[in-house]
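Task card 7
Instruction: Convert sequence to structure tokens.
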Amino acid sequence: MTDPNIPQQPVPPAVPPVPPAAPAADPAAASALPEALQQEPAPVDTNTAKGDGLTKCPRCGSAEIGPVPGSDQLRCSFCRFEWTAANFMAAVGFDSPIGQLQGTVLTTGVSDIDDQASNIVTIKCQGCGAEVVINTESQLQARCHWCRQTLSQQTQIPNGAVPDAVLPFHLTHAQAVEQVRKFANKRRLFALKKFKQEFTPENVVGVYMPYLLVDGNAHADVGGFGEIKTRQYQRGSDNNKTTYYDADVYRVTRSFDFTVDDLTIESSSARANQNTKLNTNNVINTILPFDTKNAVTYDANYIGDFTSEKRDLNVEEVMPVARDQMLSIARQKATDATRYDRGVRWESEALELKGTRWVAVLLPVWLYSYYEKKSDGSAFLHYIAVNGRTGETMGSIPVSVPKLLLVALTIGTVLEGIAVAIVANF
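Output:
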């Protein structure tokens, strides 16, 4: 058997391509997925044992609990005691080797969403007995209107509101505002004047966004053609030269196992739509990655004054995206294992998922939005997103078209002047 890393017998470029393997996203396999999921073991129960209502300080019993800015800790407002919820992956045994995964492992936090499940949850206050209503569409905590104690929705309900884990904010509001300012200042030359004048730090808000994390134990088969350059030369006259390459072409195949750890998949349909003409708020997908290994077991007290969104996509709905991303990882791994200096053109690929493990998590994002009204009556909503852990920032700002044209004309004039000077010197 020959080593596929070492070129053996050159193959003419006209050699028929490698027969294509089964496509990555097989519609038949996709349609059979829900049935396959039903055959898997029962979901891993990640529901907290706290129950809904009051979450009390482990030292003094106070219910006045909130997140400590810039850390993963919770703090009692009464006795100032601080503690951290358990690391989620370790608590449920999800730090075991990914290469041993078989089948589809789900948690109760990623179970299929019940379309009939109500967003309105009534919690009985353990302090005074009053009944408090929480709308899980927009909040997971509320204050009792009689005794003013904070009540939390901790129990997982089949509407996607309560996840398995949460990754607390590390960046404070002041740090997030500074990141937004830096991002905008780097683009102030072209920015709309009103955008700079109307910047309001109070509009930088912290939001917990819903994602699914997936570990994958996979096998990939890819095939194609690789090229090694044998000669480079030029043809043509002085000012009209064309560079040519001669290369040997080799058939390349790879078959290997690999694992994927904490692949982050969008679980909100509003953000999963990547069409920028219809959706401008998917900018949050550009500030990945998050240090998801530090996610803690879900505790509503981490929400504090932040807002949150809930998951509305099931595993089978995001599986095609997960497969595509895993195939991209497989192609990169296969390419890295070759030494064809002209690259490899992969023409067939197949992915077999031996096992996957899914977790629902809330990830921290600082968000600033700006509503731009245009002269033609239309409007465009701009967003700047900041990773609440790393400070990675990305977004869009409204551009002043006259400034843009002026700069373009100025650069063009300068370049023309330089060209004239070079010709004159020559």
